[in-house]
Amino acid sequence: MLIYFNGELVPPEEARVSVFDHGLLYGDGIFEGIRAYEGRVFKMEEHLVRLYESARAIMLTIPIGMQQMGEAIYRTMEANGLRDAYIRLIVTRGVGDLGLDPRKCTSPNVIIITDRIALYPAELYEQGLRAMTAPTQRVGVNALNPRVKSLNYLNNILAKLDALQAGYPEAILLNPEGYVVEATGENIFILRRGVLVTPPAFVGILEGITRNAVMDLARGMGIPVEEKLFCRHDLYVADECFLTGTACEIMPVVEVDGRPVGTGRPGPVTARLMAAFRELTRSHAGAAARSDLVGARGRGERS
Ligand code: PMP
Q1: I need a labelling partner for 295 at 20 to 30 A (CA). Which of 48, 151, 171, 193 fits?
Q2: Is the CB of 170 under 6 A from ligand 1?
Q3: 43 is catalytic
Q4: To test the ligand 1 pocket, which listed residue (206, 250, 251) has its Cβ within 8 A of the most ligand atoms?
Q5: Run of H or E residues at 170
Q6: How far is CA 169 from the centre of its chain?
Q7: What is the pLDDT of residues 3-12, one digit of tens each?
Q8: How many Å lie between the centroid of ligand 1 and the Cα of residue 187?
């Protein structure tokens, strides 16, 4: 396996950061999780825009532009002979001293890891997932806005631990006001009386690329979609529920806090969206590989 490390492709044992890197010391940095299907990176421009926006929000200057980053992703995939891949992009603040001051970190590290991923076993997509609402709250937008995909995922990990300790594979988080926001690494949708509802980005979620793609797909299929606040009660009375994310794609949720969602089986609208999403990733893959780099060209200069 070869890792992209600041412009070089090196074996994993040579891809090392310093113990003084603020990414390690403080979780100061950002990342992205991207997928490639049949040799083509899915929604690359959207992921790169989110990465560069996360960087901007924390005043981290990524040393290479978006176009170069896109090329580096393809270079890494090709060096590893991967056509279907999970791509992890990491930018750390870089080496500083033991104080917090990020201005002392002058050289951010850019890392790309390409590998395969299977978050959940295949049968779970047919059976659906059991989830619980986590006692751990999602961090509020005025503390650390979840729209920044930062290297500090301890909030999500604590919620994941809540669920795992209670015997559930996944947790659903509420924000400090009690509104449902997202799962530990996925966005959430519910279906109620034929309307698909997902929390708006401002409420404290990562604005998922899969979420946005699913909303577009649903609208194209004539399913009404609303970005609206909702709470635990709405989960309990939902007809269907599912999670979305780059790694898991679309995962039906069939139980929340011990209550069955709808019939307790993955719902028909969820199944239609799962099929449509699979089709989208296939047709996307069918398009000319690297044509997505054209979209990213020019933006790099502004980053
Ligand atoms: N929320 C969180 C907290 C995440 O980490 C992720 C995964 N990136 C998502 C939602 C889903 O986002 P996407 O569809 O862009 O992978």
Answers
A1: 151
A2: no
A3: no
A4: 206
A5: strand 170-174
A6: 17
A7: 999 999 999 9
A8: 6
